[in-house]
């Protein structure tokens, strides 16, 4: 009889241990499910944050690009204005030459081109 009680005790102890093992397994499965859900939520948050950063970077890049385009356009316009101003000054200088000076310069250039005596082109 004592052996039967011991067997019953061991059997009850084994059932208790098995029961605790099954409960632990259920708890671990629930914890794993929660961990997977939390991981999924964190991944989604990270993806969203990354998308936000990319969008902010693209907006900043577009703004910087607009600034550079504007600066280049201003520099181009200033260069064009400077060239036009220089051309206007040179035109004004040429317009101030009297007809006699223009004729003298024209003769000098022709002499140079034709290599006539007394001109630098004949040397």
Describe the structure concisely.
The protein contains two helices and no strands. The chain has 123 residues and is mainly alpha-helical.
Question: N-to-C terminal Cα separation, in Å?
Answer: 144 Å
Number of domains: 1
Using the CA coordinates, give the radius of gyration: 48 Å
Q: Sheet with the most strands? A: none
Q: Helices, strands, pairings?
A:
Elements: H1 2-96, H2 99-114
Q: If you had to describe this structure to a student in words, what would you say it looks like?
A:
- This protein has helices at 2-96, 99-114.
- The model has no long low-confidence stretch (mean pLDDT 90).
- The chain has one domain.
- It contains 2 helices and no strands.
- The radius of gyration is 48 Å and the shape is rod-shaped.
- The protein is mostly helical.
């Amino acid at each position: 009889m004592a052996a039967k009680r011991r067997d019953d005790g061991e059997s009850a102890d084994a059932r208790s241990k098995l029961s605790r093992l099954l409960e632990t397994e259920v708890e671990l499965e629930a914890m794993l499910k929660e961990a997977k859900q939390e991981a999924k939520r964190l991944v989604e948050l990270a993806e969203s944050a990354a998308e936000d950063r990319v969008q902010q970077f693209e907006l900043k890049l577009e703004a910087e690009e607009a600034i550079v385009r504007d600066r280049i356009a201003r520099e181009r316009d200033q260069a064009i204005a400077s060239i036009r101003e220089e051309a206007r000054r040179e035109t004004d200088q040429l317009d101030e030459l009297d007809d006699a000076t223009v004729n003298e310069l024209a003769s000098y250039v022709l002499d140079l081109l034709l290599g006539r005596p007394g001109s630098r082109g004949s040397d």
